[in-house]
Structure formats: structure tokens, C-alpha cells
Write a structure and sequence with these properties.
The protein starts with a helix and ends in a 6-residue tail after the last helix. The chain is built from five helices and three strands; from the N terminus they run H-H-E-E-E-H-H-H. The protein is of the alpha+beta class. It has a three-stranded antiparallel β-sheet, covered by helices on one side.
Amino acid sequence: MSKTKIVVLQMKELVYTGIFVGLGILLIILLIVMFNPFNREESAQEVDSSKAEAMVYTPGIYNSQMQLGDKSLNLEVVVDENQIKSVAFVNLDESVTTMYPLVKPSLEYLEEELVSGTSIDNIAVNEKSKYTQTMLIDGIKNALSKATPKTEE
């Protein structure tokens, strides 16, 4: 009876050895595929072409000027190649926030939506600050029009 246990233990060792040999072969094949120099050139060209197609904006800081009553507001939009990073007022006067209390919260809401990846055309406008948000969206669109890369034809 003790012979059977020895055979079972030897069979386990053979199974474990087989599994480790299989994993070793799989690892070697994976390394060859990953570090093959012929595939690198093709994949680099694919990345360059897809990067050019995916580029939505020219990275930078773009400004738009808006008129609110007798005050002039400067809206600053910071973008990278494919998304909006921030939207803010430059030198917002305290008298503007006092006279128009919905301006700052509306811009914060729009910035949160745009930074999270929502398209400017798909932003849901709040009914309470509908006109303020619409004015701000127009200002942001104006700044983004300057950020759109020019296509060469």
C-alpha cells in the first residue's frame, strides 16, 4: 500500500514539472513576440498615424472675451491634444460675482463636465442658470475654435 503513495507523489511531481515547462515555453514565446524588432517599426508607424488622427486640439491656453453688462470677462481654456484641462476666468472682478452670482458656480459646473470628458455640445444646461450657462458655453466654444488645428488641404 505504501507503494501507491510513492507513485502518486511521483505523478504529482511530473504534473508540476509539466506545468512549469509549459509556462516556461509560453514565457519565451511571449518575450520573442514582444521584443521582435520587425514588429516595432510597424507598430510605431501605426501609433504615429493614430495619434495624428486622434488629435482634437492644438495644446495651449486660449482666451475668449465676453461682455456681461458693462464689464468685460476674460475666459481662459487650457487644452492638451485631446481634452480640455481647465476653464477659468482671468482676473474676475468681485463686483461681477456680486452682481451676477450665478456666473462662478455655472463656470465651475461647466468646467467639471468638460474636464470629465463630456462634449461641449452634450452638456445638460441647468434650468436655473440657463442663460448664464449658455453665454459661458458660447465663450468656451469661441476659445475652442482657436484651439482646433487647421487642416491642410
